[in-house]
Amino acid sequence: MSAAVLFACILYAKSADLNSDKQALLAFPASLPHGRKLNWSSTTPVCTSWLGVKCTPDNSRVHTLCLPALGLFGPIPLDTLGKLDAQEVLSLRSNRLTVELPPDVGSIPSLHSLYLQHNNLCGIIPTTLSSSLTFLDLCYNTFDGEIPLSVQNLTGLTAILLQNNSLSGPIPDLRLAK
Ligand SMILES: *[C@@H]1O[C@H](CO)[C@@H](O)[C@H](O)[C@H]1NC(C)=O
Ligand SMILES: *[C@@H]1O[C@H](CO)[C@@H](O)[C@H](O)[C@H]1NC(C)=O
Ligand SMILES: *[C@@H]1O[C@H](CO)[C@@H](O)[C@H](O)[C@H]1NC(C)=O
C-alpha cells in the first residue's frame, strides 16, 4: 500500500468516527421531545457549532456532551448516546428524563463523569458502569432497588451522589479515590 493510500485510509477512518458520533447525536433529539431547540444540523460542523458538544483537541471525536436544563422529556433512547465511545463527560442534569438509564450509556468505556441529577429516572442503577468513572451524580431521581455492588470496582471514583432516590439495602463499601 502506498503512503498516499495509507494516509487516505487514516483520514477516512477518522472522519468515519466523527461521522458516527454525529449520526448517534442526531438520533438522540430525533426520538426525544425537548423544550428548547437544539441547533444541531447535519449541515453544520459538530465540533464548533453544536450546542453542548465539545470534541477532542484534534476534533476527531465527541468528547463532552452537556445538555443541562433543556427540557429533555422522556426516556433516553437506546443506541444513541451509548454509541459515543470516545465520550468522557456527559451531563443531562435538570431535565425531565424518565424510565431507566440505558445500560449502554453508563457503560461507555471512556466515560469518566456522568451528571444525571434532577430528572425522573427510575428503575435500578445499572450494574455495568464504566470502570473509568470518577464522578457519578444520580441524585434527585427515583431510582430504586439496591446500590449495585459493582460500584466497589470503580477504583477511580472520587464521588458518587445518590440522595433523594428510593434506594434500599446496604451501602457498598466504597474505596473512593483521593
Ligand atoms: C448553536 O448555539 C451555540 C450556543 O448558543 C452557538 O455557539 C453556536 O454558534 C450555534 N450554532 C449554530 C449552527 O447556529
Ligand atoms: C469486581 O471485579 C472483579 C475482578 O474483575 C470481579 O471478579 C468481580 O465480580 C467484580 N465485582 C462485582 C460486584 O462486579
Ligand atoms: C428529598 O428527600 C427528602 C426525604 O425523603 C424529602 O423530604 C424532600 O422533599 C426531597 N426533596 C426533593 C427536592 O425531592
Automatic annotation (TrEMBL):
The keyword Lyase does not apply. Keywords: ATP-binding, Leucine-rich repeat, Membrane, Nucleotide-binding, Repeat, Signal, Transmembrane, Transmembrane helix. GO terms for cellular component: membrane. InterPro entries: At_inactive_RLKs (IPR050994), Leu-rich_rpt (IPR001611), LRR_dom_sf (IPR032675), LRR_N_plant-typ (IPR013210). Its main location: membrane. Residues 18-56 form the Leucine-rich repeat-containing N-terminal plant-type domain. The keyword ATP-binding applies. It is found in: Membrane. One of its GO terms (molecular function) is ATP binding. Gene3D superfamilies: Ribonuclease Inhibitor. Pfam families: LRR_1, LRRNT_2. This is Leucine-rich repeat-containing N-terminal plant-type domain-containing protein. It comes from Aegilops tauschii subsp. strangulata (Goatgrass).
